[in-house]
Design brief:
single chain; about 160 residues; mainly beta; nine-stranded mixed barrel; about 0% helix
């Protein structure tokens, strides 16, 4: 039996030590993401070039701030675009105690070497483990309208299907 769900996430800028909440299942839920770090691996003086990487680590928590898990995203600079931004490919893992969700994406970022910015987009859910076995669907993220390059207050929507 396939279950379809919609869940909302909001990226927040601040984090802290929190209690552990009940682990999420593949069902309706609202989560929040707190940016932990963005690390650029490349020559910052020369700027981002093809093959350079960005590593993003985020904490996942519920509305009360209880810890639920984390996400790890690795992006690779593919090329510089005609407007001087960078085309990236990305893969990542959302890690919960009840299983993992695997994602993949591609998109542009104004400056891949700038560790203070991120961009929104669509992420394909390409699989999962345990509770999220055979997961498919989409994750859509968008920055706040008043701060389009901000790391805080992001809204992320997940439309996911999992097999029982």
């Amino acid at each position: 039996m396939v279950r379809a769900y919609l869940l909302g996430l909001t990226v927040l800028a601040a984090t802290g030590a929190q209690a552990v909440a009940q682990s999420p299942a593949c069902e309706d839920m609202e989560l929040f993401l707190s940016a932990q770090s963005i690390e650029f691996l490349g020559d910052e003086i020369e700027g981002a070039q093809a093959g350079d990487r960005r590593i993003l680590v985020n904490r996942l928590h519920d509305e009360e701030g209880n810890d639920l898990g984390e996400s790890h995203i690795v992006t690779t600079v593919v090329a510089e675009t005609s407007d001087g931004s960078h085309l990236l490919t990305a893969t990542g893992t959302v890690i919960f105690p009840t299983g993992r969700i695997y994602v993949a994406s591609s998109g542009d970022i104004p400056d891949a070497a700038d560790e203070t910015i991120a961009v929104g987009g669509h992420w394909a859910i390409v699989g999962g483990t345990e509770e999220f076995a055979h997961a498919t669907g989409w994750i859509t993220s968008a920055p706040p309208e008043h701060e389009p390059s901000s790391l805080g207050d992001w809204t992320v929507t997940v439309d996911i299907e999992c097999d029982d």
